Amino acid sequence: MDFDFTDGERAFAEEVRGFLHANPPETFAVDGMDAGYGSGANSRAFLRALGAQGWLSMCWPKTHGGREAPMFMKLVLMEELALAGAPFGPLAGVWQTADAIIDFGTERLRRELLPAIARGEATFWQGYSEPDAGSDLLALKTEARRDGEHYVIRGHKIWSSHAGIATHGLVFARTSREARRSRGFSMFVVANGTPGMDIRPIRSLTGEVYHHEVFLDEVRVSAELMLGPEGDGFQALLNGLDADRFWGRFYKAPALERVLRQLVSYANTTEVRGVPLARDPGVRRRLAAIAADIAALRLIFYRAGCLIRDGAPLTYETAMAKVYADETGQKLARLGMDLLGVWGPLREGSRWAKLGGQISHLYLTTLGHTIAGGTAEILRSSVAVRGLGLPAEPKVAVESRR
Amino acid sequence: MDFRPSPAQQILISTARAFLRQHCSPELVQRLALDAHGFDETLWRRMAELGWPGLLIPLELGGSEGSLLDVILLTEEMGRVALPAPFVPSAVVATSLVLAAGSPAQQKRLLPALAAGERVATLALVEETGSFDLDGVTLECAVPGRLTGRKLFVRDAHIADDLIVAVRVGADLSLILLPTDQPGIAWLPLDTISGEKVFEVTFEGVDVRPEDLLGCAGGAADILASALRAGALARTAEMVGGAQRIVELAVEHAKTRVQGGRPIGGYQAIQHACADLVRDVDASRALLYAAAWRVCEGRPAEADVALAKAYAGEACLTAARRGHQIFGAISYCEEHPLHLVHKRIQAAGLEFGDSSHHLETVARAIGLAS
Fold it and tell me: Nearest-CA residue of chain B relative to A395?
């Protein structure tokens, strides 16, 4: 066993801290809201700055312009960025899309997109969910019809994060009607602005825009823009979900650690009825208990990271870790609101707002986390069925639903 | 970073699991829990033949010179079966104290016998406040002099050959090593739901000589704190092992118990309860290993040990209680093994500091002003 970083990992962490010191995160322009996951706001300028460091492509094969750095360097980078509250919103999605393009992409996708990704210029929205296909993703209706060297996509996607400020969509669509339910799906990389694509913002309960719905009306894309195997896209998507949950939540523990430090400082400097909040036994107990949760969460993610690094099979680990991350975030946000009392609901920028008004924002954004990217219910069932071997709930036949 | 036990540790784990499966059945655990003496000498001797009580003791003193991490992996296996034995009080806590504070003569006299399982030693620390805080030690004793007073929650005092008694000397603490057959020492059983053997030990004018001091007079606080951390980790390992066993039992039950025409594990209510069991155990184990590793590496680990014990104390007990709900009525029976593991987790969560004790340590470590 070894619970420490290697010398190389420590040196890289130091390098990242040096970069953040020289380039204070708060000086970068923000393009899209911080959704509370821990990756901060969406800042195109910050992503380009990461690209200029060579950090977006550092783990890629040399043949694709990378330098084959070990995968753990990505964890080190994310942890440092999250601890600093940097606006690296699109980073995880960009890394995953690049990996998929390197693994399954056509020559054209590699040629056109990898250099742009490496520079921090290309970002992606996920076109998976549909109005009638949420937890039941296989119920999706978007179709891609083959037409010579092209596909023509028709459908309606929803809950696509930051679609309005991204450069490309990853659109999941049915490419064959004959195949059985889980077959016949494929993924397409569709540039924003392609004729027939209409991206409309959905204002969230935070008052800001994070999600979008996307109408695809006879959107014509080259067959070279298909990502992954034709007709087997669902399996590829499922396989990708383990990674999705891992990379999409890895930075939550350090981000929550950052919030915890702020709450500790608040408790130390705030008096209630003449007594520092920090001396209230209930406050002490709750803050200490959530510190234990955050420490456990961090280790659970590092354990999953080791499995991924070592190429070991994953069954339940990332599903479990995602639920734990999201529920811990909700717990911390709730605790923060309790500590702040009447000041809690004040928004960022408001007179009298405490801790920059970010706790009220966290309180609202974390509400969505146990829903997005697989609900806590779906994921607990996944832990039970895939991880523990319990029998899946019987599927109710479509006919009997009507 | 690497979360896996080494190949040698994996052998230790598999050997222990096979041995305990064969020699420590739920029936034996139940019988010993109900029996006032509750000590299986044959089992203890067999454990000694495997070198377990000497795991922390150097080779030249008859031990097998393992690490605290080895001890943790072994106690995790013991927790799986709720093994009734004086391993944690004697082979972990008392042995740590003798190793850290004993004179060469004391070490030579005690450690080979402790390693061979021929002697059992135990710590007498807690007093009427019920606290594992060192501030809770008020029993005074001049050395040389006479010791009069009492200690509570002393594990396995009835089979111990030696008692290590924590006493106060003004602002400081000392440790006194007393053979249990010394005149004036008596023990009264405390009847507890876990079936673990814990005692009130009374001292009536017990003669204490300078050579009975373990370590220097007034210098025991740090040594005690370190041994209590080892004890806390070992008790955490018992909880983790017990909770892991509950996961396995509950999942097996959920796969085979049929109600409403299908296994109950096919219902979401049971699936989600099982998923939470796994999280509780995995998270507890990760904190445990990380804390034990830090101790082994000689790094500051006070907060890590406190985190691990506080977390497991809550999570593993929750897992145990959830286990009963998954099993339903059958687990309410004495002959069902679940309650044995549950009660062990309950007891382990309290010894060497309960969750609120350790959360206070965490509260200070995260910077909350006191």
Answer: B266
Contact indicator for A332, A318 with CB cutoff of 8 Å: no
- How many CA atoms within 13 Å lie on the side-chain side of A129? 16
* Interchain CB distance below 8 Å, A296 and B286: yes
B282, A303: Cβ pair inside 8 Å?
yes
CA distance B148 to B165: 12
Are residues A287 and B267, on separate chains, in Cβ contact within 8 Å?
no
Q: Cα distance from B137 to chain A (closest Cα, Å)?
A: 23
Domains of chain A and CATH, by start: 7-122 (1.10.540.10), 126-231 (2.40.110.10), 251-387 (1.20.140.10)
Q: Find the CB nearest A291 among B274, B314, B362.
A: B362
For A104, counting Cβ atoms within 10 Å of its Cβ (0-12 exposed, 13-18 middle, 19+ buried), the class is: middle
CA distances (Å), A177 to each of A143, A155, A231, A334, B193, in order?
9, 15, 10, 46, 63
Q: Under an 8 A CB cutoff, do A380 and B275 touch?
A: yes
Burial of A310 (0-12, 13-18, 19+ CB in 10 A): exposed
Asked if residue B47 has pLDDT above 50, the reply is yes
Q: Is the pLDDT reported for residue A397 higher than 70?
A: no
The pairing of strands B198-208 and B145-155 is antiparallel
Antiparallel, parallel or unpaired: β A197-203 and A209-222:
antiparallel
DSSP string across A291-313:
HHHHHHHHHHHHHHHHHHHTT--
Identify the pLDDT of residue A179: 67
* Distance spanning both ends of chain B, measured CA to CA: 34
What's the token pair of residue A211?
A: 């999600």
Q: What domains lie within chain B, and their CATH numbers?
A: 7-115 (1.10.540.10), 121-214 (2.40.110.10), 221-365 (1.20.140.10)
Residue in A295, A306, A393 nearest the CB of B287: A295
Helix H or strand E encompassing A143: strand A143-147
Q: pLDDT, tens digit, for every residue of B90-127?
A: 999 999 999 999 999 999 999 999 999 999 999 999 99
Note the pLDDT tens digit of each residue in B197-210: 999 999 999 999 99
Residues of A in contact with B362 (CB under 8 A): 288-289, 291-292
The partner residue sitting opposite B282, judged by closest CB among A267, A302, A320, is A320
CA distance B50 to chain A (A): 23
Q: Does A389 contact B360 at a Cβ distance shorter than 8 Å?
A: no
pLDDT in tens, B150-164: 999 999 999 999 999
Closest partner residue to B255 among A287, A387, A390, by Cβ? A390
ipTM of the complex in this document:
0.96
Q: Are strands A168-174 and A124-127 parallel, antiparallel or unpaired?
A: parallel
- Residues A325, A328: Cα–Cα separation, whole Å: 5
Distance, in angstroms, between B319 CA and closest chain A CA? Answer: 15
Cβ pair A297:B283 closer than 8 A: yes
Do residues A384 and B271 lie in contact, with contact meaning Cβ atoms separated by under 8 Å?
yes
Q: For B60-77, how does the pLDDT look when each residue is reduced to its tens digit (9 = 90+)? A: 999 999 999 999 999 999
Q: Which of B2, B276, B368 is closest, CB to CB, to A287?
A: B368
